[in-house]
């Protein structure tokens, strides 16, 4: 199976997959509502709005594996994201990104190393994976903000 074929539910609990994004660049981010990096939602939404008309999407996967920083229900997460940060980008169900129950999408993504050579386990909330039109993956550390010139340049390059 490819990253596009693994079943995953939307935050609303509806069956879905990443197939809807195949052939388009998109940014996969493991997100959390009670993290010091949570303000990155603002930048992620800005990227989504800025490039959405060109076929780009940000895709969020809530995760509670880092300090219990995403304890809410799907409804609580949705409410928080929309009312606090105006999030309009697609959000999927809460998943594990590390360990024995790691979601298959993250099993594939974590094979890619970032610019510092880190591959394998997700280090913290807001780790980013830019998936290109051809399915290629570029990984960015949680500390790389959505406004970071390297990330923006990679998105621009992926959009062509």
Topology readout:
Layout: E1 8-9, E2 15-16, E3 26-31, H1 40-51, E4 57-62, H2 74-85, H3 104-109, E5 128-131, E6 137-140, H4 149-159
Parallel strand pairs: 3-4
Antiparallel strand pairs: 1-2, 3-5, 5-6
Instruction: Return the average pLDDT rounded to an integer.
Output: 97
> Per CATH, what is the topology?
Glutaredoxin
The residue fraction in helices comes out at: 25-40%
Secondary-structure element sequence?
EEEHEHHEEH
According to CATH, the homologous superfamily is Glutaredoxin
Molecular shape: globular
- Beta content: 15-25%
Total beta strands: 6
CATH architecture: 3-Layer(aba) Sandwich
Structural class, from secondary structure content?
Answer: alpha+beta
How far apart, in Å, are the first and last alpha carbons?
27 Å
Radius of gyration: 14 Å
Number of domains: 1
Reading off the top of the CATH hierarchy, the class is best stated as Alpha Beta
Count of alpha/pi helices? 4
User: Residue ranges: pLDDT <50 for 5 or more in a row?
Assistant: none
Sheet with the most strands, sense and barrel status: 4 strands, mixed
Spatial arrangement of strands, main beta sheet: 4-3-5-6
Describe it for me?
The chain is of the alpha+beta class. The chain has one domain: Glutaredoxin. Helices cover 26% and strands 15% of the residues. The chain has 4 helices and 6 strands, in the order βββαβααββα. It has helices at residues 40-51, 74-85, 104-109, 149-159; strands at residues 8-9, 15-16, 26-31, 57-62, 128-131, 137-140. The strands form 2 sheets. A 4-stranded mixed beta sheet has the order 4-3-5-6, with helices on one face. A two-stranded antiparallel ribbon has the order 1-2. The chain is globular. It starts with 7 loop residues before the first strand and ends with a helix. The model has no long low-confidence stretch (mean pLDDT 97).
């Amino acid at each position: 199976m490819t990253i596009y074929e693994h079943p995953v539910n939307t935050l609303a609990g509806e069956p879905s997959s990443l197939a809807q994004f195949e052939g388009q660049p998109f940014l996969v981010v493991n997100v959390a509502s009670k993290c010091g990096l949570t303000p990155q939602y603002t930048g992620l939404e800005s990227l989504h709005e800025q490039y959405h008309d060109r076929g780009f999407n940000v895709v969020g996967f809530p995760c509670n594996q880092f300090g219990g920083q995403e304890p809410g229900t799907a409804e609580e997460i949705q409410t928080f994201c929309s009312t606090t940060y105006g999030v309009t980008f697609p959000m999927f169900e809460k998943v594990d990104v590390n360990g024995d129950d790691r979601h298959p999408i993250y099993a594939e993504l974590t094979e890619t190393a970032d610019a510092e050579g880190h591959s394998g386990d997700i280090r913290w909330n807001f780790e980013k994976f830019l998936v290109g039109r051809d399915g290629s993956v570029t990984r960015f550390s949680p500390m790389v903000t959505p406004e970071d010139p390297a990330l923006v340049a990679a998105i621009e390059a992926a959009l062509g």
